[in-house]
Every structure is written in C-alpha cells, then in structure tokens.
Amino acid sequence: MKTLTIYAAVGAAGALGAMARLLVATICAQLLTTSFPIGTFVINITGSLFLGWFAGHGVGEIGRFRRHEARHRDRIRRRLHDVFNVHVRNQRLDQQRRAASGGD
Hints:
0% strand, mainly alpha, 90% helix
C-alpha cells in the first residue's frame, strides 16, 4: 500500500508539473509571437537555475541543518549526562554522610 501511495504522489506531482509547463508555454506563446518555442526555453532555463540553486545552496542548507541538529542533540546528551552525574554524586555523598553519622 505504501508503494502505491508513493506512485500516486509522483504521478500527481508529474501531472501538476505538466499542467504548469503547458500554462507557461501558452502564456509565453501568446505574449511573444514567434516560431521559436520560447515557452519551452523559459521553462528549461528556470528549471536549470532552480536545480543549480538547489544543488549549490539547498543541499548545503540541508547539511547545515543536520550539523545543527547533531550539535543540539549532543548538547542535550551532555547536559543529561551532567545532571545524572550530579545526581549520582549527591546520592553517594548522602550515603557517606549517613554512614559517617552512624545512621542508615
């Protein structure tokens, strides 16, 4: 069932992309009356620019987010470790005080 959902999502995204491509191509053909397929040219250039931006900037942002997430997770882990160590140390000190005072 999960595979079917993925295929349906990809199909829906492809259909929306095809409709957007047709819309841009139609608008460009109406605005610029030429035999050159300017709509296809505009779509391909904007797609290339987006992919270039994503490859250069978007992937870097994803990597930066993952590094930030890892640092945050490490900070929490260290803090929990410190709190646990303080708790254990306090328990040991309490036991030593009770033993020194002769109480249980």
